[in-house]
Every structure is written in structure tokens, then in C-alpha cells.
Protein 1
Amino acid sequence: MSKTWFITGTSRGFGREWAIAALERGDKVAASARNATSLDDLVATYGDAVLPIALDVTDRVAVGAAVTRAAEHFGRIDIAVNNAGYGHFGVVEEVTEDEVRAQLETNVFGALWVTQAVVPVMRSQGGGHILQVSSIGGIMAAPTLGIYSASKWALEGFSQSLAAEVADFGIKVTIIEPGAFATDWGGASATFSQPLPAYDDFRNGTVAALRKAMAASAPGDPAATRGPVLELVDSENPPLRVLFGNGVLARAVAEYESRLATWREWEPLSKAAHGDVTS
């Protein structure tokens, strides 16, 4: 039985790959992108199975209209994919208010507006599946990516709450946490703060070493995620969270083991902070 998808950020990256995966197996896709002409090739190849939509996800009214249009055009929305987003690079002291707001407007509010628009559609039809594209940066924070990680931590926070809130309506939520992939996330899609000279040594040392370590392993192939994402949406019991890519689990485990060790070390202080409630 074919499914109908609503995907943001389908001009490239994961959004493009997953749209192709869905269309190739006979599903229908409402494909959105800032520039709808970037979707012309999908329309030329798959015809009426594609509904191209020009959409800036930071525009809440436009998001609502796009979701309504997709639902009316195809009759339902089975899968919503919040893929639109980008990375911003800059140490915390460097980032400007405009840069922070722009990052959150796209990565957090854009996903929230789409989510709020599709939930009523899915609730009325008795079910659906929302895929939130997070990152390994939604689990841990790396130097110069603090604001990006803040956006993904926010996405993960409201998505975990959402999963519990909509479960009784038959709506499933999955947070996808990719590691390094050969997309243009760190290239054409990225934005950068004006560097402060005070951090030159830090960038040349700590940050350079971190990037060298990450570059030592080949990034994943976005096209290889087509099969796994289809398996997710076809699953009767999909996970709330799933990692994409080699080596991502090891990094996540190391992060949580470090947190647990610190919490345990400082547990006496934690208990002392509770106070004596027996008297």
C-alpha cells in the first residue's frame, strides 16, 4: 500500500534521497524547498506522484498552507519529514543575535511549525509517522557548533514529549541522528561567524585536531540511507531514536558513559543539595 510523504528540504541531501526512495517504490511525495525549480527534475521523472512546493519553513503561515495543500492534493499525509536545516559554525562568544535567531528559526521553529501542522491531519486520519532529522550534535556538543547543537537538543526535547503526547492517536515519532555524511552540510549550506582573534590558538589546536579525527573516517553516503529510512517508515514499532552512520554509536556511548561517571562522582553533592526533608 503506497504512502504519502511531506518532506522539507528536498532540494538536496537526505531530503532529496528520501524523496527519490519513496517515489521509486510508488509512493507519493509533497516535496518542499525554498526554490521550487530545484524540484523540476523530480517532477520530470515521477510526474503527478510529486507535488512541488516552494516553502520557507520559518514562515509559519506558509507552512500551514503547504501542509493543507498537500493533504488536500493527495488526500492524506502518512509520513512527515523535517529535514530542512543547516549548520552554523562559531564559538559561543562569536555568534551574533541574528545568527542565533536564524539558526533556531530554521532548525527548531521550522520543524515545530511543520509538526504542529501535520499532527491534526494525522490525528484525523488515525495515524502517521513524523521523522525529525537531528544529528550526533543532538547528543553531544562540539566546539564551534554550540548553537547548532542547541538547535538539535531543542528539536530532540520537544520531539520526545511529542511522541508520548500523540501515541494514542496512532502517530509515531522517530528522531534520526546521523553522523558525518557526504552532504554539503559543512559547505554551501553552512554559515560562519566572524572569527575573534582570541580564539585563533584554540581553533588551530583543539578544533583542528577534532576535525582531523573526524576526517580520518570516510563520511557516509546519503544515498545509502534510502533503504534504512524506508525500513523505518514501514516498521510497526519504529524507535524513538535511531543513529545513522558508522562509528556514531561508539561516540554516543562514550558521551553517556562520561555523563554517568560524572553524575556518580558528584552524587553526594547532589543528595546534599536536596536537603534534609525528614525533620
Note: Residues 97-125 form the longest helix (29 residues).
Protein 2
Amino acid sequence: MGSRPYRRRLAWSAAALLVAGVAVPATAAAGPDDTSDAPSQIAAQSGKQKAKNVILLIGDGMGDSEITLARDYTVGAAGRLNMDKFPMTGSYTTYSVDKNGKPDYVTDSAASGTGWATGQKTVNGRISKTPGTDKPMTTILELAQRNGLATGSVTTAELTDATPAVLASHATDRSCAGPADMKACPNDTIAKGGPGSIAEQSVNHKVDVLLGGGKARFDQKITEGRHKGLTVTEQAKKLGYQVVTDDKGLKNARAGKPVLGLFAPGNVPVEWTGKAAAQGGTEPQRCVTNNPERKAGTPSLDEQTRKALQLLEAKQSGKGKKPGFFLQVEGASIDKRDHAADPCGQIGETAALDRAVKVARAYAAKHPDTLVVTTADHGHTSQIVPLEATPPGLSSTLVTNEGQQLKVNYSTNTPGEAQEHTGTQVRIAAQGPQAHRVLGVTDQTQLFGTIRTALSLR
């Protein structure tokens, strides 16, 4: 009994030291695969106030359950993913709002992405515009450009999908992807004095590096404005973009001109496949790690990330250029395969993002003035449940790389319907200048402030 107040004082002191950026010795034994930064490195990194570069990695729908599932399957329960090794880890809340600014407790990717892109909440389905008055809100990428930084966006979704769209476009509805998709955005059309579709806006912004899927959107013809009659891809070429469609083209892309990589007609096919979850469960299965639907020559997310960093670094060193860049990287189909109750597709995409995290952290190790942040836009449906459980929804049993069976359950909607997002808080982890700002429980709108402060954006 007498030792409890002393223990409480110790716990309080350790927490205070951590917030202040002072190293605190670990009290628990490190796991067998632990290679996270040492406490002295944590203090040194968080003490730096200004970042030259920011790399933001988003796992779409990558809640704690999705991370745990990928960890258990690939590196084992006692193992650690690359995203587990950040020195600073917290959680943030993800709710959106209605048109009156009242909480909507389960967000979609458009509203959540708008949160960190602009620092403001909006209604589900809206891209970087206000919830009530539908006015454009300045994004972190736009601020970076105004301050002379190089910018990039990499995704495994269509480049017009919600998460990449929030950075370089403003749309009443996320469905307004290409010139032929403007039905839900009448006031955003060029004829009404608006900025046009998400695809048109993305290239008009002259983002230095745009890599992902969605070629079919960019191949739509523009029907209004000065680029009328051209496809968006042709518009991009006219604006100076190098357009590439496979890994060879990406390798040959050179700095000095912006790069538009379109690696699939729609979303980039996932890396892994397997049997989807079913009512009553599935027989124990191993995932197929070479999806036959993934076209040869499709660059992996880590390859795209590595090339994007190369191009952005080359641009910032050009004559008269202000050093620094902002890069967002999205593992999009964690979410898409969660919606489809496809555990293998989901795990494979989490593993793919984790390799991109490794690339980002390796870059930061050589460039310690780089802030690296990994987080998600919202939680999702998958849950690890006991093998003997008989859940009412869809479930699948996997055989992990440890040779153990693991049951995953999907029950956020009626079987036969797409599984739903959840309103839970999600992980945010960071290293580098201002990384301490992710500690504790924050809101995703505060990530905007963290990046803006780190880069000293005016």
C-alpha cells in the first residue's frame, strides 16, 4: 500500500519528461524484433523545431485491428512492423460533421482527408470545401507550393480518389473525378466558373509528382474551358508533365518536369489475394502473395515512394529553389478490401504500405530534418476473434507465417452488403521535427497544424 503514491509520482514524472522530449528508460522488456529509435534519438529528434521535408503515409481504413492482423500474419504476434517502430505514438479522433457543424461520428475518406489537409472538418463526401457554405479551404499542399516547396502524392487508388484528391482539388462531392463525372458538382464546372473535375484540378495544380491509378479518368475528354477537346492526360502533357504507365517509364522519369504516373485504368490491383470471408467461415487458408490480376510492370508502392523521394529531392536542389518538399503516400486498398471482407487483400496492402514506411524511415535516417508521420483516415471492420467463435457476420480462418490459425470477422453490415467504416480513434505515429505533437489523443485536424508548424509554412 505504501508504495502506490511513489509509483504514481514516478509514472507522472515519466509522462512529463516524455512530453518535454526527454528520454525515459523503458520499463518493459523490448520484443525480440524491436528496432525502434533509442530514447536519446527520440529526444534529439523531437527537440528540432523545423523540418525541411515532410513524408505523410496514410493507411486508408488502417485501424489498430488492421495493423494487428497484418502483424500477426506476416511477422508474428511478437514481431514488429516498420510502422510499429516510430518513437512517438498517439491516437487521433476521426469524426466528420454535418452541414451545421455537429458531429457525424463515422467519417468517410473525403471528410477525414479534408481534416488533415485543411485543418477543418467537413461533411462526408466533400473534398476540401466547407461543410455549410461549400467554399474552398486552403490545403497543406497548396501552402507548401506557395512557400516554394516541391510536392508529391502517391496512391494505390485512382489519383482522383478521396485521399489524394483532398490535397490538390476542391469539390462538392468526391464522385466528381473526371470531366464526365460532374453531375454532383454543378457549381464546380468550368462553365459555371468553377475549377473543373478532380483530375483537371490535380494537373492544373502542377503537383510535381502524381503517381497512382485512375488512367480512365484522365483519358476522359474535357468539354469546357481552354483545354476543351483534349483528354486530361493530353492537358497534363501540354502543362509539361511526363506521363508514365509502367515501372520502366517510372524509372526513366527525370527531374525538372512534373511526373504523372497512371498505372491502372482504375484502382491499382492489390498484391495479395485469397478467399473472401463467408458466413459460417472458411477453411483455413494461406494467402496468395502474387495476385495474377496484377499486371506485370506495375510498380509497387515502395518503389513509387522511393522514386517520388528521388524526384522531389532533385527538384529542391535546383537553382533558385527553396529546399524542402511535402509528400503524401497512401495505401488505399486496405480500406477497399476491408469493405469487401477480403482478409488476404487487406493484409497484403498493409504489408505494401509498411514497406513504403521502411523507405520513408530510411530516407529520414539520412535526412534527420525530415518529419515522417504514419496514420489512418478512419477505422474499419475487421476483428480478430477466437477460433471457437461463431460470429453472425462473415469470417475467415487464416494460417499465419508462424503456422498458427487466426480467425478474422467482418460484421459491420449485413452479409452481402459492403462492410462499413467505424468511428474509433486510430493510431498516429511520427519521427523527426515536431513529432512530439502526435502524443496523447489529438484530432486529425491537428495534423495540419503539425505539418504546417514543422515546415514553417506561411
Note: The chain has a mean pLDDT of 91.
Protein 3
Amino acid sequence: MKYFGTDGFRGRANEGLDVEHAYKIGRFVGWYYGKRQGKKARVIIGKDTRRSSYMFESALISGLVASGADAYMLHVIPTPGVSYEVVDGAFDCGVMITASHNPYTDNGIKLVNREGYKMDEDVLELIEDYIDGKTDVPLATGDAIGCTVDYMQGRNRYIASLISSCGFSLQGLKIGLDCANGSASSVARPVFDAMGAETHVINNSPNGFNINVDCGSTHIEQLQRFVVQNGLDVGFAYDGDADRCLAVDERGHLVDGDLILYVCGCYLNKHGRLAKSTVVPTVMSNFGLFRAFDAAGISYEKTDVGDKNVYACMRENGYTLGGEQSGHVIFSDLEKTGDGIMTSLRIMEVLRGEREKLSELTRPVKLYPQQLDNIRVTDKGAAMNAPEVTSAVAKAEQFLEGNGRVLVRASGTEPLVRVLAEAPDEKLCAEANQIVIATLKPYMA
């Protein structure tokens, strides 16, 4: 793909991604879905809080209505809210304007198909051809021109769906929320307040420039201090578009995506709700998580890095829980995509059901130290396919005697080979990595 990566079309606002791109995406999408079904397309649009999101929203809407589509505006909403409402409102597709956890200077456009999943690649390829001028689409005229609809009720229905997914009260619990001055600012507090929690919120005053700035899931330290200083039972931090969540236990300790998978996986399995007793983590999940799953009698199927790969494995095999260390966690029996607020509600379900503190629920997992070395190379492919490198990985894992692992991956965006070791102590990690790095020297830049 030339423009659309694994997480949409993303770039620095009006540099890598500009209003012309947004307008053309709207033009093609509005025409494509109208032509395919022989009537006006209905497209729903959400955005995060960065200043440029409003500019891109206007450009997208102009393109959509000029091609004959009706554009429904959800305004500021988490990315999973767009995914939910595409299905709930029977829209042809959805568009989310966000650069997720990136700084406010960046932005992006994510497309969602009518089933609530990331847009099909064949459609994205057609959009790219249109952006590059390889195809053309007609302008609508007369009564065929589309209209815009203020669709705040869609956001309200999304909030209601989150609340209705919970058959329990949060009365008597003190919960901290870090909304990252992003999309969660309009949704998270109403959900927890409605469920009876004593809700304490930080970083929920977006001004267009403060999204993700020293806050949210990428800067968890602020929430850790906040939870301890205020004697809270638990805290949750979201990223800019609220599709990921990290937690903080009552002692101020980080509970990352791996630990969330363990806590929720054990609870769901105990109650017969974990499909095939299997969780879907990525290859980057901590070795300690796999050992804890083994001890708990829970199976796991590892995928390559990226929530897209986790989704694909879950859909193909009918699994109901998967995710990444970063806090992208998917409960596929409830939603089509990762949802930070849904993740925090599912953790609260476990806390309520088990009557335990979060620190106790994570205690069985002994996370292993990790060492990651990024090795700059002249040819990633040659390095990754070299037999001596493959042999070195096997030798390094033999050195760890089954009590750790070594993972070698090529960077998707840079000329780097990443060598990651996990072992009971940092000295063993460093020694295991050096076994592999020594064989990479002929390929180093």
C-alpha cells in the first residue's frame, strides 16, 4: 500500500496527509458505495480532539456529499465507537479521523467496513488509485448531492451499549481515569458515573494541542501517582482515540496488556466464556505470560505483531479474547475491535466477580526481564534469511535451557533487525542477545 498502512492513512497534518487527500477519500467512498448499491451511500464520521481533525472532517464531508453520499457526524468519539455505530446504524462504512497515540501534529484517516472491521484491502487499493489520478469519479448534481446530519445520538447509543454490557454496579469503588485529552474525554466519565463509581478523572480537557502530551497510556506515570495519592482502587489510561487501555493497580503498579489478558482470560475461562480455552497474544508478549497461562491450563495462539493480525486469528478460529502488550485488547463476543473503555469495564467485571484487588489477580504472572537490541543493517531480508542467524537463535535459546526465549524480527519501517531476549535475569538476556548479534555483524550498516 502506498498510503494506507496497518492503521490507516497517517502522516503529519497537511504534510504527509493533507486536506486534498481527505477530500479525495470522501469523493471516492461516497461514489463507490452509492454506485455499488444503486442509492445514496450513508457514511458515518468520527474524530479525535486534535486541532487538525476538524479540518479533515470538513474535507471528508465535502468529498462525500459532492459524490452523492449522506455524511453523519458523530463528532468526538473513540475509534471503537465508530466501529460499533457502523453496525448498529446499518451504515455503508465508517471513517475515523485520528493518529491514535501520536503527537497532535500528526493525524490519520481510518476506514471501517459495514461489518465494523478495518476496511478491505481491495477497496483501499481503489482509493489509492483515485488519489493518484488513475481513475475518476463523477460529481453529483441536483437532488443527487448528499447532505450532512448531526448524529450525536449515535455517540449516545455507543455510551449506552458500554453500560448495558455490564450486569454489575461499581457502587463503592474509587476509579481513576486518564483520558489523554483525547476521544475518551467525551465518553469515559459518563459510563463510569452511570455505573455508580466514584470517578476521578485527569487529562479530560482537550484544547486541540494537548492530546497525548505527558498523559494517557503512553505516559502512565501520571496515573500511577494519581491512583496512589488519592487512594483509588484502580486506574485506567487510554490513548488518543481510546482503542487501547492500560491499567494501574491500587499500589500504583502498571498492569499492561499482557497482564490484562491473563486476568480476563482466567476469569472468562473459569466461567466457561473463553472460547476453546484459548487466548490470542502476539509473539512480543512476555515469556512470563505464557508460563502463567500454562500453569492456569489456558491455551494460547501467538500471532505476529499488530492488532490486525490478532483480529484475523480470532475471526478465523472463533476465539473471543486476544490483544497486545500495548493495551489493544479485543473481546470479540462483545465488539468488533479493540476498545479501551470496554477493556476497563471487563477488568472491573473481574474485580467485582472475584472480590479481589487487581494486584492479587496479577500476582501469579512473573514477568521476565527483557532486553531489546535494535541492529541497523544494510539488508533486512538477507539478515533475516541467513541460516547462521537462524542457528544462532536456536543456540541462544538452548543457552537459556528452556527458561526464556530469543525473538528476532525485522522492523516494518526502518532498516533494523530487532533482537529481543527474555530470561529470569538481565545478565542472561544480554548474553543470549550477544549470541545472535555476533552473527549479524556481516550485515550491519
Note: DSSP finds 15 helices and 19 strands in the chain.
